[in-house]
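Bumping with the actual sequence this time:
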Amino acid sequence: MEFSAEQVASFIGGFVDGDAKAKLFSFAKIEEGRKGDLCFLANMAYEKHIYTTEASAVIVDESFKPSEKHSTTLIRVKNPYEAFAKLMSMAEAQKPQKKGISNLAFIAGDVKITESCYVGEYSVIHSNTKIGERCVVYPQVFIGENVKIGDDVILYPGVKIMQGCEIGNRCIIHAGTVIGSDGFGFALDEKGEYKKIPQTGNVVLEDDVEIGANTTIDRATMGSTKVGKGSKLDNLIQVAHNVELGKHNVFAAQAGIAGSCKFGDYNQVGGQVGFAGHLKVGSYCKFAAQSGIKDNVQDKSSVMGAPAMNAVRYMRVYALFKKLDDMAARINKLEKK
């Protein structure tokens, strides 16, 4: 596709500073831009590239003031990152959508699925399952019995949706993820042996949820494990049984949530953060990478460390920690006098 800088600016509510007729054909990183490319500058650590890029246009903040001469056309907007993402989404939507059901797929006779969907080779869909409009089921996906899937859902290769689970509209689940595996529930009997507790619940993903590759979300012992509307989970995350995530939570890779934790909305969780079981986490909280959370967390908290504490306090404590060896040496010296 070909657009002018002027057309692009109109799509994203910006204005052109430079050649309004500049032709744009593709997207690129600002440091790799070539003629015909559209780039963006949101992180000023990359500002130096705007003065050397060969890209035909760069989306920048409307208040951006170049400190050197440049040859590229600027498209000024309020939020460059959001504007660029919007354009990429528009371009992605223009790609032809897969349709049709492969003869090599197995679909039970009572499954409800429309002709607008695509089902790839060697995918399996069991009985009493309902799949909405325009869904894309890539090869080797497993969908168990009594599953409900909304409209415009994408299931990448190797995804497993176990029995009874519910997937909302516009959800995206990446390769290798398992939705609805058994929760980790065992009880010691009188012989001192662990006996499995049946996991009879399900998993519910609300609308607009995206789950990364090789993530596992366990079904509830009873009731539902829930992931709220608009939440985004990265790769390699473990969500245990009966966890409930509110709306628009984001979790980076390798986070782990023990059973029955309850989260509010709009929390941001860094990589490898671990949550102990049965915690209550508020809304608008931030968790630094590798934090260990053992206590309930109030709204709008920022924490870090293992065990975690208030982020400001942690930085003060860490500043002292770095001086401990010097302090110990001074104390030892004083004790020898």
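The tokens above came from a reply further down the thread. The first strand starts at residue 3 and ends at 4.
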